[in-house]
Specification:
By secondary structure, the chain is an all-alpha fold. Helices cover 79% and strands 0% of the residues. Residues 289-296 have low confidence and may be disordered.
């Protein structure tokens, strides 16, 4: 019971920090940072901090084996795509919409696991349909500029898919390597393609921004990227990707509340219904029988 409580606390802290990060990033993008420049600066700093922490604790960043390198490569590509989706989804639509659509991540994680051999029950497929209906309602209720919101909603779905793929890819490696080492390796490697696509915006960026923006950037580096990587993947190793992501079903609602409270965003009736539908789908999925192999 003590171990289960510890895992719950780690997952809850992670969810709270991730939920706040959506609002923080939206604020930063609205107050001077270009999307890709922000992502490149943020991940460059996080990679340095993560590598320093891993080297201090373990004295090495070495990993080996063909399967390990393949999974690291998949995780790097998934995280790179995830961050491109993240900044542009928030650029084009609201933090409320992005937060609610992120609630579908557990469904996508289970679907990706199914593609690699996990058998899913009829109950799960019903849950997936309910959650996807919820995503559609959230998108329909987002309002604003139709064209911008449609692309923002699509990128928010891509954000959920790529984070699920990242979680599934990295989970098996946790049996051999610590979250400190894995997080630092993935961050360092992911920064290479990220800076490649961000170079133009990094060069054009005006860095004379307010103190509040830089303080929030520090939070966005140290909280969601350094601390939560350790918390999330340590918990992920104990309960598996399909199970661990189900603990995050509070994130979309907390994220939406942060956005409404701190950014004064609106929350439409359709979005509320859609968010409830996503949560209902996740709860239904939790009732579906999950084979032991899913957590391996």
């Amino acid at each position: 019971m003590r171990r289960l409580g510890t895992v719950d606390a780690m997952l809850l802290a992670t969810v709270l920090i991730w939920a706040l990060n959506v609002t923080v990033t939206k604020y930063i993008l609205e107050h001077g940072f270009k999307p890709l420049a922000y992502a490149a600066v943020r991940y460059g700093l996080a990679a340095l901090v993560g590598a320093a922490l891993a080297l201090a604790l373990e004295r090495s960043l070495a990993v080996g084996g063909r399967r390990t390198l393949l999974l690291v490569g998949v995780a790097v590509l998934a995280l790179w795509a995830n961050q491109v989706c993240f900044v542009y989804a928030l650029k084009l639509t609201t933090a409320t919409t992005v937060s609610l659509i992120l609630g579908s991540t557990p469904i996508f994680a289970a679907l990706i696991s199914a593609a690699f051999g996990e058998r899913l029950s009829r109950t799960f497929w019903a849950a997936a349909l309910v959650s996807f209906a919820g995503v559609a309602l959230v998108a329909l209720g987002s309002g604003g500029s139709f064209r911008a919101d449609v692309w923002g909603d699509i990128l928010a779905v891509g954000l959920a898919i790529t984070w699920a793929a990242y979680s599934v890819a990295i989970a098996p490696l946790m049996r051999s390597y610590s979250p400190y080492r894995l997080s630092s390796i993935v961050l360092l490697l992911m920064w290479i393609p990220l800076i490649a696509v961000s170079a133009a915006q990094v060069g054009q960026q005006d860095y004379g921004l307010s103190v509040s923006v830089w303080l929030l950037l520090a939070f966005a580096v140290l909280g969601p990227l350094v601390l939560t990587n350790v918390l999330w993947f340590t918990a992920l190793d104990r309960v598996g990707p399909s199970h661990a992501t189900l603990f995050a079903n509070l994130q979309p609602f907390i994220g939406a509340l942060f956005a409404v409270w701190l950014l004064s965003e609106s929350l439409s009736g359709l979005q509320i219904v859609g968010g409830v539908a996503i949560a209902a789908g996740i709860m239904l999925a939790r009732r579906a029988p999950v084979p032991v192999e899913a957590a391996q």
